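User: What would this chain look like folded?
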Amino acid sequence: MPLFLFTAIDVLHQLGLVKDVQQPSEAAVPSTSSLLPQGVRLTVSGVVLTSDAHIESPIIQVLPSSLGHQFTVLVGLYSYKINNAFLFSIRNKSRLQFGVQLLPRKVVVFTGGKHSIYFDYSVHNEKWHSFAIDIRGKTVSIFAECGKKRYSREVLSEVETFDLDALFTLGRMNSHSVSFEGVILLVMKTAYLIKLQEKFMQYTDVDTDP
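Assistant: Here's the prediction, encoded as structure tokens.
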């Protein structure tokens, strides 16, 4: 059987939210470059965001320009507070190119322009949630509960290619909007990885979790 090397983009690592970054302490004064951003804590479960967290970075430092129109967002989260915050957003100035919003009873995926897709899936119920948002051209799908729940919607046009000067914001739509409060794990898989996985599963002829 051939060996496939599966890799993915750990968004939190790309944003510098990693274990070797020191957390603020009154006993020591490390350099500012080694400190976590305000409102951020690291735990075994993931990255904890509070209401005053603001994590933003140029898109080119987070995601590859070759991401294209086919990719999957793998999410693990535990919400501490019910609100309308974004899980993350990708913006060029005031224009939203892509984003995921967590409403009280729905997950909304924004695919650029004024296009948005609403899915009947709630993450604000004091439970840990793991789900995947899959972008395949004009089809947007969400997989939850290890594939037991699946929703798909069609959009009018494909997801825009992200501008090189766009910004990636974690836990908010922008600096003025409400913040997600809770624990986050976030990974993105590129089309190349997705195709490798499809070929692998065709070869082994078994089903996979999302």
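The chain is about 10% helix and 40% strand. If you want, I can go into more detail on any region.
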